[in-house]
Design a protein that fits this description.
The complex is a heterodimer. By secondary structure, chain A is an alpha+beta fold. Chain A has six helices and 18 strands. Chain A has a five-stranded antiparallel β-sheet. A four-stranded antiparallel β-sheet of chain A has the order 1-3-5-8, with no helix packed on it. Chain B is elongated and about 130 Å long. Chain B has four domains: about 170 residues, no CATH class; about 290 residues, no CATH class; about 70 residues, no CATH class; about 80 residues, no CATH class. In chain B, helix 4 packs antiparallel against helix 5 and helix 9 crosses helix 12. The chains are: A alpha+beta, B alpha+beta. At the A-B interface, helix 2, helix 3, strand 6 and strand 7 of A face helix 5, helix 6, helix 7 and helix 18 of B.
Chain lengths: ~325, ~675
Amino acid sequence: MTAATAAPPRRRAWPGVAQLVRERFRRWWQGRLPRSDTVLLTQRNVYILPTPAGLMFAATLMVLLLASINYQLNLGYLLTFLLAGSGLVSMHVTHNTLRALTLRLRAPAPVFAGEPALLEAVLTSPGTARYGIGIKLVDADTSTLTWIDVPAQGQASAHVGFVPAQRGLHELPTLSIETRFPLGLFRAWAIWRPGSQLLVYPAPEQPAAPLPTARALPGGALRGRATDGGEVEGVRAYRRGDPLKLVYWKKAAKSLASGGELVSRDTASAVQQQLWLDWQACATLAPEERLSRLAAWVVAAERAGAAYGLALPGQSIAPGEGESHRRECLEALALWH
Amino acid sequence: MALSLPNDPGWRLPHWPGWSRLPREGRDTLFLLGVIAWTVLPHLSHLPAWCIALTTVVLAWRAALAVGNGALPSRWLLVVVLAVAAGLTYWSFRTLLGKEPGVTMAVVLMALKTLELRARRDAFVVFFLGFFLVLTHFLYSQSLLVAAAMLVSVWGLLTALVLSHMPVGQPSLKQAARLAGRTALLGAPIMLLLFLLFPRIGPLWGVPQDGLSSTGLSDRMRMGTVAEIALDDRIALRIRFSGQSPPPEALYFRGPVLSRFDGTEWRTLIPSFPPRLQPQAELRVTGVPLSYEMTLEPLRLPALPLLEASPGTPQIEGLRVRGTADLQWLIDRPVLERLRFRAEAHLRFQHGPLQTVLGLQDYVDLPPGFNPRTLAWAAELRRDPALARAGARELAQHLMKHIREGGFSYTLAPGEYGRNAVDEFWFDRKEGFCEHFAAAFVVLMRALDVPARVVTGYQGADLLPVDGFYIVRQSAAHAWAEYWQAGVGWVRADPTAAVAPDRISRSLRLLPAPGLVAGALDAMSPALLQQWRDAWEGINNRWNQWVLNYSRGQQFDVLKELGFESPNWQDLAKLLVISLSTLALAGAAWAWWDRHRVDPWMRQREALLRTLRRLGVPAAAQDAPGTLARRVRERHGAAGEALAALLDTLQAQRYGRQARRHPDTALTRSFAAAARGLSPAPDR
């Protein structure tokens, strides 16, 4: 025996038109808001309206008032007016909960397309403690609200995740911050368009194609390691002095779990070879898929600890390694057009 | 359809983890259940037994589910239970409409709704039903105690509401209660304003009145009925005089006048003569009227017991008061609410026709076949040569003398009387209370051919006034007699005064045996008990005067004090709208001002940083006072020691073990003073 908990969606007369108008209005409204990473919530940008529960409360008050009038109950009047007064005060409290808060966005780290990006909003209260503040993306539904309390004269941070679909430098999505504290009769909200931009790398190809083979350098001795391409060259037991970067963590974890020891990548066989991740090497693919494959290669090469260069039409990045090199390559892939 | 019952084999009492270790959801639910139980509790005496049992079981079950984190029952079960409850309600009251069935159904709904609390946010229905349940209590009683209990309920409901909007972590109940209390307290001025100014209008539609049964004065008298209210210590009315208060023995509050006697029962007269021939009121008063203010408890009587004798009709909002020929003040409906009004009375007065009118015949009427010995005794008296030509006055005096000297005694427990009650009382038992004496006196006067009637009402008051109000209790209910004398009119005769003068002059009432607690208290310290009682009645009186009796008349009084010449309800509405708008504007203005408010710590910090930068000390916003002190010492050395010391003090004030709540303004001032003595470019 199961109870139906979800009501069937209501049908509207002209679902298309109403939705369209509302959508247009909202976009126009949001477009007017200036983008900024720091926002001070004031009376100008905090909105407030009664919730459905608030309307129900008003109806209850009407019933109580009618009963008081009809039965000539002075205590009934007192009860009704006490509740009405509390409701009115709660409106101010709800608005106060958001007002004077400072919202600051921590610059988000770049992510791959299709992976969740976490925005960290820091809320600062100049005065009293604020309770029950929820943050979400404007377009998301209410169930995804992230709830936080802000201590008096303190800060609290909330994380809102979203998944960017495309590579490139994106504007951050619009956030909405709302509260119904204390009685839930009113909902105060503010719309926040953060000013930062988010760099989104192309989604790495899944499953990743094998790395192209490294080319032996013609003659010249070049510093830096190179790999023979393909799968990771080989592994050996960890030796003291091995850089942590060489530890093959995936295998090491398995090995440790089965009572073994740490495992390092064997780079002894490294010869002076050069790995070029080349746009031309994946000529059979569509441009975006090529970028995905190149991104996957960058990730794989970096993980393998190899030095690699990136060649894009009209742009090439000399071979190198390390976090900044990786970032440079991925950024080039993200912004290439 | 198979129902999953709560007591299937897998079900047992959940383990109680302890209040502090209860998960948040469970704790909040238990708290809400507690508040609901508290709200329902005062209804116990009005609810049918099945409803009490059902509510208890449901609440206990829900509590067990909350503790054990069990699954809520299906909606079908609830629907079935609700249907059964509706059936039981109909079975109990034979209707689903009206007060009692309504309250019963509201309680059942409330209990069942708790089984549907799936999410914290679903709880709104419970909250609003809760507020409604609170109101239903006022249908039964609006006493101070009920008000206090319901205030707790409202606070609890608001607390639960606040709790459900604090989704983060595990906020303490105390914190939520504080926030709810603050919201309600801030709302109190609005409540007061609305209460004072919201126009009071009469009932919008008729509401069925439930069967009224309350002891007190009634429009009929049978020997024994007054004994019941003589034991009733509740307050009937309160009275406050504008000038000098008259002595209690002069206070006769005239209630129903009973002139028709059928042998066992006294009732109001149905005149057998046309109005023209009936005796008229013909009130003749002397002296200055005594002005007073009266608060009348709901007596459920279509008459007002006004102080004798009232020369004019009192004006009472919403009531039509009509004076009768026998000086009663009748109203068009039984009073079910407390009344507060002003009236006047003349304690020295005469009334009734001076000459014989035919209608007086109604007042010598005696039913045949009752009290033969009394009639014979009266005939004997008539033959007495000393009284052969005596007027009504002499006859009354003779009867009074007989009562005084004939071995009569005043008692509250005279026992039951038979068919010829007056015979039995006058000749055999000779004990009774006011109504026995009054009835016997009237029967004898009538037997002597003197028009007479029984007047009921209240006599006397508590000796000491509370807040200037004299309290008249139900136990002051009294019955006396009036006889008619040519050339004078109706004359009051109180035969009880002849046998128990204390009953009249000192308002001594025979007290019933006190309850256990009161008895113990009384034994220890009678004065203390009386003091407590007086204090309690004083508070209760103020409650009645200012809260329960506040009606349109008082509203207009308030307006008059505010300077309105002749207030009407439009003024009331105007004032209300203006006040509320002012309040709203004030709120907006405060919010606007609040925008510019800076945290006082920040303000102090800004001032210090400015000073330091002027002195060439590198000072950034994030530097702690201790760090700044070190830099001041580095740069200014001994000359900057005073400044550095102040910064160290600030560090302690801000972050030390005994950190201050608010910044020390004296410190800011001495810091500025110390900085004045330093130059920006120190000599190193």
